[in-house]
Prior knowledge:
Number of helices: 25
Oligomer: single chain
Largest sheet: 4 strands, antiparallel
Radius of gyration: 32 Å
Strand order of the largest sheet: 9-8-10-11
Shape: globular
Amino acid sequence: MKWRMQDMIFNRLFCNRGILFQNFRQHGWIGILYLITLLFSLPLHIGTEYRDLPQQITSLFQANGEVQILFAITFPVAAGIFLFRYVQSGAPSDLFHSLPLRRKHLLTVNLLTGFMMILLPIWITTAITGWVWAALDQPAFIFEGSSIWMWGLSMSIYSLFMFMLTVVVGMCIGQSVLQGLTVYALLLLPVVVWFIFSLHLQHYLLGYPYDEVGRNAEKISLVLRMASISGAPVIGWELIIYSILTLLFIPLSYVFYAKRQVESATQAVTFTLVKPIFRFGLMFTLVLISGAYFTIIAPRGSSGWGIFGYILGGIVGYIVAEMIIRKTWLIWSSKLLPKMALYGIVAGLILYVPVASWNGYAARVPELNKVNSIKLGGERYTYTNGVSSKLDEGPFYSSDSEYMKAVIALHQKIVDSDLSLLDDPINPGMRNDEYVFINYKLDNGKVMKRKYYIPEPEFRQELMALKQSQAYKKFAFDTYKLDEDALSIGIRSTVSSYRKVYISNPNQVREFKELLKQDIMDQTYEEQRSPWQSFAYAEMNQDSSSNDPSQPKEMWNFEIKPSYDRVLHWLKENKLYEQLEFPVDEVASAQFVKQEINSPGNPQMVYPQSEYVDGNLSGNKQIATKNKKIISELLQRQRSGYQTERDTLYQIKLNVTRGENIYMILKEEDMTEEMKAILAGQ
């Protein structure tokens, strides 16, 4: 009898049926719409999609996952806003809080309503998806039954996280519109702050590695997760983190609701403690955005613009935050300037301390005896079954003593040279033409990373010592792949994609790989930096690691440079060279158009442009020739694309008798005497 009485009290107070039914009558449309949209985005999509070859997938998010995540981050937020709309309005707030229910009872029944409105549509969709999966005779997607339950679990966690985040924010914010904006701002804030703060570090901290920001940013925001969910489906740690946060938000919502004043409805920020957090968060975000903007548009070599941007962003950010909190533009008081100065000092310290010279980051070079191995370059990724996954970095690290000494010597000279900081945080490589990304695996188990763009002439000796080492060539040119088995090798001319050969004989494949590896490993430093276009590209085809028959086999591309004597001689011996070489007789004429580059401080990328010749973009006079000797020399040498601030070059078009025309570039200094004579004569 006692237990029955307690059960009745629990049902009457914590699960009040009147409020529960009222919630569903008033806001049940959110759950119904959520169910309909989920049904359209998953089971209907899977059931009606048609493919000639079914696609093997490992996650249901690979089937229209972007739309599913969009619904998961909108409908739960709407549920959180509408269910707790009464705490944001004066009259409804007084009415609900005058009921003979404690706040914890009101919160419990509203949370229960929200959970049901969110979870029921997800698990109904999961069940229907399982039925569709079992009923389809010719499915467009092939997946295991566990993928269905994993989708339901993932969507449940994502949706509950968004709902509870909305509820907690609603307890701290007194306006529904501002509540919704704050929820999405909090989701984007870590990414925005991290991204822009990384720009700050890249600009003011020599050697800061910036490459990993883009990929990792998508993993810490559900809003950005929409863009990557189909190519990088959910993994365990991600769900664990969102689950922990959701569980923490539940007791936090009870604490905040218990302390929230009824009179705080319609106020921008309901708690005094939250106001300085809100004020500083908005101010510091605008500091970073304004500083990054003025840094990017600043004239080359100017540091004052960036500082001005930080100060301007701080002033505007603080004023805007005060106006939002006070709900008026009349914010002036005697305490305004001292408070603004205090917040500005804190923001300045956060910006200054990481880039200060006394912290030793920029000058730190590890000792050789404390380094286990070294890898050059950033992370590498591969796609299997349509999923992007990070390659194991182990094989790319080398402990070769010659290689490690060369890397450390280069790093030490970079540090000692007092290299100027980057002028352009968005396109740093436009200033200097050598990219160095060092990964040290230290004795203590940590990985130390540094990234630089350096002028090649100043570091030629150190770069030569590094790039001529066998360990460098092995990883820079992926020669380790040539030691693996290959099904076939396709070779395509760089002049014309129609000129190609195919090697499938196992003996020829082995011979070609061995000779190609020898040529790559014998490259000199000058040959590695050669400005000339390769003769051809070799594509090595391997068995696919995917179980999906529609997935392509694994392919690796290698250049065949004009200096690769062994490979070129082998191609000639096997009567393959002639099939790759473009016949001079098939070129009717060559057209030359002069192009002048004159943009000091603004390097441009120069490459063959068909529009430049065909559209006569420069307006310069075009010069044509049918001289076969000149045409033959053009087919044998063409320059690769490059960056320059000031140069004179020629855009060239070879008019062929059949197939596609050929476009190339040559610098003025590349011209032969015959070419110069024709150009001068005209």
